[in-house]
Amino acid sequence: MDTTQLLKGVLDAAVLAVVGAEDGYGYDVLRRLRAGGLTEVGDASVYGTLRRLYAAGALTSYVVPSEEGPHRKYYGITPAGRAQLETQTKDWGTFADTVTALLETGARP
Amino acid sequence: MSTPVSSTETAVRPEVTAFVARVRSHLADLGVDERDELTDGLEADLGEQHALGEPLPDPATYAAELRAAAGLPPATGPRSRLAQLTADLDEVRTRFLAWVQSDTVLTRTGWSVVSGVRPAWWVLRAWIAVTLLDQLVGPWEYVTLWPTLGVPLIGPLLLIVAVTVSVLIGQGRLWPGSGPDRSFAARAVLVVLNAVAVLAPLTFTGDGTGAGDSYAVAAPVTGDRKALVSGDRVVTNVYAYDASGQPVTGIQLFDQDGQPVAVSPRGEIRVDRDREVVCPWFNGTTPLWNVFPLQQRVQRFGTCAKALEAAPAPAYDQPPLDSVPPVSVAPLVTAAEPTTTSP
Predict the structure, then answer these.
(1) How large is the ipTM?
(2) Cβ–Cβ gap B44/A72 under 8 Å
(3) Which of A36, A95, B30, B224 is deepest in the core (most CB within 10 A)?
(4) Which of B238, B320, B229, B312 is nearest to B276 (CA)?
């Protein structure tokens, strides 16, 4: 099935989890998400999500100058971001359990 | 000869830079801060991605995806005229930069040379601006290194001010400058001014031919450095009479140093619709302006030295005086009275 729609709901949590594990720049985060199994994720979606989470205060960012070309923008997680990740992890767990149970048993009266 | 390309030179390929610029142009409706926030660092990320073999997608789709993921509203309908113009300007700039920074050694070297002499252009355009002003106001005159503007010192002073302003603009300190982050108006004004600076010199005249001549029609030749002056009047032709008072043709005039006493090739007898100019004598093919009287002809533009089609053949004008009283070196004492008394 097309996972693009499903991805939208959990991309925030996935990005927070990846950056929470280790600071990273845009393409680095993208690669780790893909390596983690989200192979369909689009780069612009990830970059946009990083910017939005940063604007919301869930991420910090710092610039690492590069002698070879344009600077890289690294992202790290903030305490607010960790809290958000925790909440979203819980919510996802509950939601996934519910949906899994529903799909396995069907909605029986 | 192949040029070894080190990894530092290929960190970001021009097509990536161009791609990011196009994405930015699709975000033109956002504020500068938002746009910067969205695209900051994008070049490095995409550069690496692209270097690893990922193709660059469609900039418009990419911008829309970026925008949506960042939680920003989609671009509203068709872009406004201004946004479209800005995007077009960005596009032209991007293509140009991608071209000059492309891999051919010729364009890259050429562009680095052109970039290197930019300060010289800043000085030159200031000079052009002041010279243009100099040409548009006041009497016609030859283009000179120091614009005169008819008043002592004002030309050099104005030039210094103009150079200062131009350099500050060039450095982006006095004007928002060029580039994608500036307002369209600021960029457009700069483009137009630079274009004027490039084209304006075409109207300058250094040798008395060309479009600048039209100024001479309405203006006296007092600014003409080659003018022969008697008192405060410009001499345009000379009529010589011998000692007996008869007109002489073909006299050659030289001063105390043996220099020709010549009138200006731009000398005009009349400056109205029947503008009449003086025509030279010739030594072989060399025009001489110190042999008098000079012939004249009616000619709307230019000088007689420049043979213009449809101009009538030059001819001597009627001398202002048919003859003048005879003269002598020593005063002639009139001994008439005593002699008449003698028988």
Answers:
(1) 0.83
(2) yes
(3) B224
(4) B312
CA distance, residue B184 to nearest chain A CA (Å): 25
Contacts of A27 in chain B (CB under 8 A): 44-46, 48-49
DSSP annotation of B312: P
Do residues B125 and B192 make contact, with C-beta atoms less than 8 angstroms apart?
no
Amino acid at A12: D
Q: Which positions in chain A have a beta carbon within 8 angstroms of at least one beta carbon in chain B?
A: 11, 25-27, 30, 42-49, 51-52, 54-55, 63, 66-73
**Cβ B126 vs Cβ B163: under 8 Å:** yes
- Residue B221: band (very low, low, confident or very high) from pLDDT cuts 50, 70, 90: very low
**CA proximity to B263, closest of B247, B277, B249:** B277
Residue A102 phi, psi (nearest 5): -60, -45
Whether the ω angle into residue A65 lies within 30 degrees of 0, i.e. cis, is no
What are B339's two structure tokens?
Answer: 């002699």
pLDDT band at B177 (very low <50, low <70, confident <90, very high): low
CB–CB of B69/A4 below 8 Å? no
Can you name the residues that pair with B251 across neighbouring β-strands? B292
Which pair of tokens denotes residue B323?
Answer: 């003859």
Distance of CA B268 to the CA centre of its chain: 25
Closest Cα to residue B264, out of B206, B224, B319, B299? B224
**Whether the predicted model's global pTM rises above the 0.80 cut:** no
To which residue do tokens 């003409």 refer? B224
Contact list, B41 vs chain A (CB under 8 Å): 25-26, 63, 70-73
CA distances from B29 to B84, B93, B183, B192, B218 (A): 10, 18, 12, 24, 51
